[in-house]
Amino acid sequence: MDVAIADATGTGVLVLWNPEMLDGFVLGDGIHASGLRRNSRSAGREYSAGSHAVIEKANVRYPPLFTEVSALQPDTTISVSGTVYDIRSAREFTTRKGAQSWVRNAEFRDESGTIHLVLWGG
Q: What digits encode the pLDDT tens for the residues 27-61?
């Protein structure tokens, strides 16, 4: 399970190998996490919570830091705020491993510009 996380410096992804670690949590809960591993192969900020990780509720809240479309840089994890104004039909395809999956294209815009989105899986 992948979870979007944020702190005072920006956003990232927390990969949970045991989703039950978040039992009792609701969207927007603050957390304190220890024992995480940083994924150095990831282009953005990605952490894994394995068997030694501890995740507890904390009394913290970080509003998302939004990046304008015009300021986007390659290989970063960001949050954007704007409008998805065009969504194309999903297309089914077969992965290299022989599994069925989906891809869908969309257009997103904010006050500073427009980007093309490619949405995989699902």
A: 889 999 999 999 888 777 899 999 899 999 999 98
- From the CB of residue 63, how many other CB atoms can be counted at a distance below 10 Å? 7
The pTM of this model reads 0.59
Q: Would you state the pLDDT for residue 122?
A: 60
- Residue appearing with tokens 């220890």: 34
CA dihedral 27, 28, 33, 36 (to 10 degrees): 60
Strands (E), the chain: 2-7, 10-16, 30-34, 37-38, 46-49, 54-58, 83-87, 91-94, 100-110, 113-120
Domains in the chain: boundaries? 2-58, 82-120
